Amino acid sequence: MTIDVIVALSKEEIGEKIKAILISNGYNVLAICTYGNELIRAIKQFSPSIVISGYKFKDMNLISIYETIGDECSFLAIVNEPYKSIVQEETDIFCISSPINNTLLVNSLDMIYQSERRVRKLKDKVHNLEEKISERKIIEKAKGIVMRELHMDEEEAFRHIQKNSMDLGMKMVAYSKDILDNYRL
User: Domain ANTAR: where (predicted)?
Assistant: First the structure.
């Protein structure tokens, strides 16, 4: 699987060298940016997995960029020691020091990508669980209406919703929404 990367450094020639290293290691370099605003546009346009960035640009710094668009992708900062502590205090960006060690660069990118994949999977799980909880609340409300209107106990009301939704070829939550819609005051 190819990992999409944007390289953003104030000096284009260093960006080109990093691009060559990345391409030789199987990465797909989507763009090289030298301005912060250019980087923000590129992130919105290309949706990269990772941005490799320096700290200072002619129009803004990495922290300003991260505050604007940090949720869109992961970042790897290549910074000098004085800026490293600033970036680490202000953000959750992973930093490596310059001058760049090729092996450290590639290993850091791999680690960030793996972490990003794990976070994405966890976010998907959380989303699915939130959806199930929401559906369960709808079914429970509908069950309460069925219990009240048809004078059934909890188990009978659940079976009623289950059977009728199956007979109609609907999911229980869709049938429950219909019940709620029909009994709104």
Answer: 119-180
| Domains observed in the chain | 4-100 (3.40.50.2300), 126-182 (1.10.10.10)
Q: How is the beta sheet containing 50-53 ordered, strand by strand?
A: 28-33, 4-8, 50-53, 74-79, 94-97
Token code pair at residue 132: 């199930």
Half-sphere exposure of 23 (CA within 13 A, CB side): 11
The pairing of strands 94-97 and 74-79 is parallel
**Average pLDDT value for the chain:** 93
**Model pTM?**
0.72
Strands, E, within 74-135: which ranges?
A: 74-79, 94-97
